[in-house]
Amino acid sequence: MESDVEDESARELTIIRVFDVPARILFLACSKPEHMREWFGPTGFPLTTCEMDFRVGGRFRFAMTGPDGAKTPFFGGEYLQIEPNRRISYTSCLELPGAETMIVTLSFDEVGGTTTLTHHTLFASIAMMKQHTGMGYRPGVESGLDQLGRLATELNS
């Protein structure tokens, strides 16, 4: 029997990073607009719109500006789960007609002052995943995490 339901594992992308800072520092950097502007997004694409109502059920709205000065489409979503220093989960969707919604979960696992951050994305469909990965989603997230590492080190000093 065939199923029209796509396998969830085929729509997932997980990126894991280890930071030499406590989880509370990474959580802080992910929960305050003034810090998000410092690291979120790929290098060269600063977060120039950063509106956050950081609470479960609260919403966010972001846009980046590229090196050529052009603003990206707005994207935003709703915070689904917030566990201080442990987890942030939210929906995210481009503000474009017909755009699908992904769910992003950041998990912070601290052992002895070192924190493993797991960035997990569940795309709405395989087509959405292919579209985003084709546009550089993974390297963009990784570049942002590089910037997060630098900011976290500064915040921890």
Write a brief caption for the model:
The chain has a single domain, classed as START domain (Alpha-D-Glucose-1,6-Bisphosphate, Chain A, domain 4).
How are the secondary structure elements laid out?
Elements: E1 12-19, H1 23-31, H2 33-39, E2 47-52, E3 59-64, E4 75-83, E5 87-94, E6 102-111, E7 114-122, H3 126-134, H4 137-156
Helix pairs in contact: 1-2
Descriptive overview:
The chain is of the alpha+beta class and 157 residues long. 29% of the residues lie in helices and 36% in strands. The chain is built from 4 helices and 7 strands. A hairpin with a 2-residue loop joins β6 and β7. The chain is globular and about 45 Å long. The mean pLDDT is 95.
Count of helix runs: 4
Give the % helix. 25-40%
Average per-residue pLDDT, rounded, comes to: 95
For the terminal residues, how far apart are their CA atoms? 58 Å
CATH class: Alpha Beta
Stated plainly, the CATH topology is called Alpha-D-Glucose-1,6-Bisphosphate, Chain A, domain 4
Gross morphology: globular
Give a count of the beta strands, DSSP E runs of length 2 or more.
Answer: 7
CATH architecture: 2-Layer Sandwich
**Rg over alpha carbons:** 16 Å
Supply the CATH superfamily name: START domain
Q: Can you tell me the number of structural domains?
A: 1
Main sheet record: 7 strands, antiparallel
Give the low-confidence spans.
none
Question: Which key terms come to mind for this protein?
Answer:
157 residues; alpha+beta; 4 helices
